[in-house]
């Protein structure tokens, strides 16, 4: 009875090994099916079967192309059943070979042709040379749309080289026979049994040292084409037989030793208790009830045996409880993940899934378990379709990749093979994480970098063009001034007015170009400040004198107040004058007649604070956000009433910031405005005493 148990275990183990061989063959068939589908569902193939474009054959149908995708034969058949193009090569040498005649006959009689857009065929064809696995697919567009344009047929020989590859990958001995040839006696008997049940695997011992498993491979019509026998050593049976022999010897020896001098009545009592223990163990095993315990009677050998069995049951129960606790911990941990996690067996049936995956599939765990992953569209798209799971079971290598669904969501997918102690792959753990938001953030960052680069390019272009424009403009202004001064002869009143307008407009345009040049230099990071000591009082009075004629026309008084503790500051003299000129000029421009403009210079720690206050029209709250923006003026009406380029305050802000300072303002409509800025009195300093500007060090 015990030996029969080992025979049953051997049968199950052999069936598992045969299944591994079948999986390897199925994986190779699946590869050819996917390859022919990729070529058949291609717009270029769709066009080729109709227009026979020679460029398609020159680019895509070279001999090395067929050897590269592991295909011996390609047949392109149009929808009328005519062969448009055919090619056959030796996969190992790349030489072109004749098309097998039987394959062409099967095209003529329609055996290999697709009848509809969903009619796909695959299976073996018994050719004169070697058996060939053939995959047929209807020719459609890249989007898998009809109408069907014909049939694409790929074939690969199932030759000795491929059979040896299967032997090496499965580490087994394989024999293959065609059913259209004479079969050995054992194959003939197995063929009849397999024909009655094609999905069945027949396991049978061949000798004391070898056991075999038989299975069929079908042709394109679903009929038997090949029968394969996989041979394996009978290690499990040999081990069981040896163990049983040792056990029998041990029991015999024990029986002889314990039987000497024991009375018949005692023997009867001993045997009955032993049978009770055996019945107890059998019942615990069948009912899987680890809470049962043997009653302890008499302080003898059976008492100690019963005690050890009870102790073993205690340990097993504790181990089971610990295992369940670990399972609960793992379930809680995996359910807490945002990633989808699914564990599938080699047949791609779902064994387990975490909470995120179940919610994604809209199904509970009980319904999900046992379902084929490929038949679960909601989860198959990000997981199964993006990774070749059959290849993972075959190679044992983990895979990962990025996948974009039809809804635009982006997933990062990873599949990790899980092995038992012997190294056999028992399943694959698949993880899938939605990275759509992070991808969008990455895209925005790239677009921001592109925009910044474009802005820098724009600034450099404006800086270069401003230089090119100033040269002819200076010439226009110079010659118009000479004409206005009548150096070349007298002009009448109308001519003088026109020449004056030319000079005035040219100078206005030159100021605009100079402003653009300065702003472009700053944005391009090319403006450099030349620091020197500046007499603050002297420069402020120079500004007052420069703008006095403009202020006098509106009867505006300019007043200057400077702290007694302030004398010199460290700054770029020309740029400081540019700041003050713009601020005071704006104050005068927007002040009412008979008003005043006050300039204050105060010391604030190691900074100098300069304010310019006017008694003008002020700035509305809704217009204040427009200040300091290039080419922006606060009101369209004011932009007509008061001339300006809209660059002044923007340049002031940039130059103040280059000096290491900042600028602000306050204003009330109808009550005037105050603009103020601060810059370091001693400039921007570093340890060696030089001034730093925008990341550069200037002496």
TrEMBL record:
PROSITE patterns: HAMP (PS50885), HIS_KIN (PS50109), PAC (PS50113)
Span of domain PAC: 397-447
Catalytic class of the enzyme: transferase
Residue intervals of the HAMP domain: 268-321
Keyword annotations from UniProtKB, A to Z: ATP-binding, Cell membrane, Coiled coil, Kinase, Membrane, Nucleotide-binding, Phosphoprotein, Transferase, Two-component regulatory system
CDD domains: HAMP, HATPase_EvgS-ArcB-TorS-like, HisKA, PAS
Stretches assigned to the Histidine kinase domain: 464-683
Coiled-coil segments: 302-336
Pfam family for this entry, one: HATPase_c
Catalytic activity: ATP + protein L-histidine = ADP + protein N-phospho-L-histidine
Subcellular localization: Cell membrane
EC number: 2.7.13.3
Main location: membrane
GO molecular function, one term: phosphorelay sensor kinase activity
One term under GO cellular component: plasma membrane
Protein name per Swiss-Prot or TrEMBL: histidine kinase
Organism placement in taxonomy: Archaea, Methanobacteriati, Methanobacteriota, Stenosarchaea group, Methanomicrobia
């Amino acid at each position: 009875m015990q030996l029969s148990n080992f025979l049953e275990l051997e049968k199950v183990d052999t069936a598992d090994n045969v299944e591994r061989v079948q999986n390897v063959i199925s994986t190779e068939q699946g590869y050819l099916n996917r390859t022919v589908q990729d070529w058949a569902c291609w717009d270029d193939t769709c066009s080729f079967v109709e227009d026979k474009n020679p460029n398609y054959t020159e680019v895509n149908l070279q001999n090395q192309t067929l050897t590269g995708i592991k295909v011996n034969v390609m047949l392109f058949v149009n929808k009328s059943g005519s062969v448009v193009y055919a090619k056959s090569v030796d996969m190992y040498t790349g030489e072109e070979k004749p098309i097998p005649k039987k394959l062409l006959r099967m095209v003529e009689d329609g055996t290999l042709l697709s009848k509809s857009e969903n009619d796909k065929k695959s299976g073996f064809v018994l050719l004169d040379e070697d058996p060939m696995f053939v995959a047929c697919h209807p020719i459609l567009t890249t989007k898998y749309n009809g109408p069907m344009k014909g049939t694409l047929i790929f074939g690969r020989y199932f030759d000795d080289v491929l059979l040896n590859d299967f032997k090496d990958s499965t580490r087994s001995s394989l024999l293959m026979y065609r059913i259209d040839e004479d079969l050995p006696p054992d194959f003939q008997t197995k063929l009849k049994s397999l024909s009655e049940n094609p999905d069945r695997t027949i396991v049978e011992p061949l000798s004391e040292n070898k056991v075999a498993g038989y299975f069929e491979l079908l042709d394109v019509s679903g009929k038997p084409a090949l029968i394969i026998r996989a041979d394996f050593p009978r290690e499990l049976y040999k081990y069981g037989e040896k163990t049983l022999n040792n056990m029998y010897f041990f029991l015999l020896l024990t029986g002889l030793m314990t039987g000497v001098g024991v009375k018949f009545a005692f023997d009867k009592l001993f045997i009955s208790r032993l049978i009770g223990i055996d019945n107890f163990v059998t019942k615990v095993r069948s009912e899987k009830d680890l809470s049962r315990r043997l009653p302890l009677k008499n302080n003898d050998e059976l008492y100690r045996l019963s005690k050890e069995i009870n102790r073993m049951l205690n340990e097993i129960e504790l181990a089971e409880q610990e295992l369940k606790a670990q399972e609960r911990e793992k379930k809680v941990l995996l359910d807490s993940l945002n990633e989808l996690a699914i564990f599938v067996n080699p047949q791609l049936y779902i064994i387990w899934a975490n909470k995120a995956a179940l919610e994604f599939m809209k199904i509970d765990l009980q319904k999900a378990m046992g379902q084929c992953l490929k038949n679960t569209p909601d989860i198959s798209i990000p997981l199964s379709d993006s990774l070749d799971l059959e290849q993972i079971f075959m190679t044992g290598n983990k895979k990962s990749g990025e996948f974009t669904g039809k809804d635009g969501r982006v997933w990062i997918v990873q599949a990790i093979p899980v092995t038992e102690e012997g190294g056999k792959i028992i399943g694959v753990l698949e993880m899938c994480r939605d990275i759509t938001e992070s991808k969008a953030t990455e895209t925005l960052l790239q677009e921001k970098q592109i925009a910044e680069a474009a802005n820098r390019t724009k600034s450099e272009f404006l800086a270069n063009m401003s230089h090119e424009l100033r040269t002819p403009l200076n010439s226009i202004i110079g010659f118009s001034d000479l004409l206005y001064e009548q150096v070349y002869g007298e002009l009448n009143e109308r001519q003088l007015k026109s020449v004056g307008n030319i000079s005035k407009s040219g100078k206005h345009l030159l100021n605009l170009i100079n402003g653009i040049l300065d702003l472009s230099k700053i944005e391009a990071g090319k403006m450099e400040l030349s620091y020197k000591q500046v007499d603050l009082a002297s420069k402020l009075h120079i500004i007052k004198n420069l703008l006095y004629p403009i202020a006098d026309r509106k009867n505006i008084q300019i007043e200057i107040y400077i702290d007694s503790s302030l004398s010199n500051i460290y700054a770029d003299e020309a740029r400081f004058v540019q700041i003050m000129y713009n601020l005071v000029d704006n104050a005068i421009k927007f002040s009412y007649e008979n008003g005043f403009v006050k300039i204050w210079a105060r010391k604030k720690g190691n900074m100098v604070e300069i304010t310019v206050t006017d008694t003008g029209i002020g700035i509305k709250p809704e217009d204040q956000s427009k200040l300091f923006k290039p080419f922006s003026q606060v009101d369209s009406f004011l932009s007509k009433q008061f001339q300006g380029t809209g660059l002044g305050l923007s340049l002031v802000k940039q130059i103040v910031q280059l000096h290491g300072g900042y600028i602000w303002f306050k204003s009330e409509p109808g009550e005037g405005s105050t603009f103020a800025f601060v810059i370091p009195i001693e400039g921007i300093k570093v340890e060696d005493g030089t001034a730093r500007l925008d990341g550069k060090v200037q002496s």
